Amino acid sequence: MMLNSDDHDNVFSEYQPRYAAVGIPTFPCSIASRKKPLVRNYGRMGLPASCQLVMKGLDSDALACMAGQRNRLTILDIDARGAKGERLLEDAQCVYGPSEFIVRTGSGGFHAYYRHGGEPRRVRPNPHQPIDLLGDGMVVLPPSRGVLRRYEIVHGHIDDLAALTPLRHDKATDRVLRIGPDPELVTKGARGDTLWRHCMRAAHHCDDLEALIDVARTRSSEMLPPIEDDRRIVDIAMSAWKYTVEGKNQFGRSRAARLSLSQSSVDALVRDPALFALIGWLKMVNRPDAEFLVANGLAKVLGWPLSLLRTARRKAVETGWIVKVRCEAKGRAALYRWGPTSRRQVRSRP
Fold first, then answer.
1. pLDDT tops 80 at residue 36
2. Are residues 272 and 344 located together in one domain of the fold?
3. Do 275 and 218 share a domain, yes or no?
4. Which of 9, 10, 150, 240 pairs with 313 at a CA distance of 20 to 30 A?
5. How many CB atoms sit inside 10 A of residue 59's CB?
6. Which residues pair with 166 in a beta bridge?
């Protein structure tokens, strides 16, 4: 269901009463460069104060509320787009229960809303899934104008927010999402290094740099105090993304699970040294089930001319060693997985 907001900028003043009718106080925010509230004390915002903002004439093209106990909201934030995001949304609802209110976010991901049941706020609690658990903190609401698109309700109505079902909890689902005690807050002196390490682990599961920057901003908000300099946050995310694109990011990669080449595959590759070297290097740093980058920056890592990398990469695709699963776009490198030739000729190391 797409909310009718046309192209005007009066989203907050128009939709504040609609959310207030189901007991959710909202506040105006800006998400042009980062998700930033436009008022103070937004974390303690109640319905009377929210209504007064409209009466004072304050408006914006985006509005938000606070997840958590106050508004009885917990959100699964799925940071994946297109068919991959839809599959993750479906899988998440199979594990955690159906959601009566689902939103497509401004970046193309999904928010699945549930009644709050004491869940914390976790960024990538399971490093193998691009899913955040928002049991606290700011959440942008539809039909806010995002960077790429408006936030859009794809299932349910605003009225459904008054009667959400809770996130399904048992030992099995908590293990999948890795819900546990609140982590120790990060203080000054350790914030930059902690954020960089977090971005290095999360980068493997981000579709592009913008998604990683969003992860970095969310993680920063959990620190005590948060990193106020947004340029520093962006620089940290860009550094982690550069390492990942160039194939240097080994965070979260297990060497014990890497693959070895069988003798038959060695015989098939030995006649093309560049292809042999590329496949061998990729198998040294990627698991059998991994999706990975073979970006142009890898040429510098290998000490090759770019033309040699491009030729070897093309041959790897043509011969079925790797398969492209996401095409390149502006600011985003292509993504690959192991192809049928690899699965046929390569065996897992015990």
1. yes
2. yes
3. no
4. 240
5. 18
6. 115
Q: Of 157, 83, 70, give the one whose Cα is nearest residue 113.
A: 157
CATH number at residue 303: 1.10.10
Q: Mean pLDDT, to the nearest integer, of 318-331? A: 83
The encoded tokens of residue 251 equal 């965070």
Last residue within a domain, chosen from 150, 177, 204: 177
Is residue 261 located within the same domain as residue 315?
yes
Please check the confidence at residue 43 and state whether its pLDDT lies above 70: yes
pTM of the predicted structure, to 2 decimals: 0.57
- Same domain flag for 130 and 204: no
Tokens 């595959």 belong to which residue? 265
pLDDT digits (tens, 9 = 90+) for 277-302: 888 888 877 777 778 888 888 888 78
Residues 77 and 196 in one domain: no
DSSP for 63-114, written as a single string: EEEEEBTTTTEEEEEE---HHHHHHHHHHHHHHH---SEEEE-TTS-EEEEE
8-state DSSP, 167 = P
Question: With bands split at pLDDT 50, 70 and 90, how would you rate the model's confidence at 1?
Answer: very low
- Per the structure block, which two tokens stand in for 254? 């297990």
| CB-based contact 259:283 (threshold 8 Å) | yes
Do 34 and 92 sit in the same domain of this protein?
yes
First to last CA, the chain: 50
Separation of alpha carbons 68 and 83, rounded Å: 29
Q: Burial, 184: exposed, middle or buried (Cβ in 10 Å; 0-12, 13-18, 19+)?
A: exposed
Question: In terms of domains, do 236 and 266 share one?
Answer: no
Beta-strand pair 346-348/259-261: antiparallel
The amino acid at 318: E
The answer on pLDDT for 53 being more than 50 is yes
Report the domain count for the chain: 3
Residue-number span of the structural domain to which 234 is assigned = 191-245
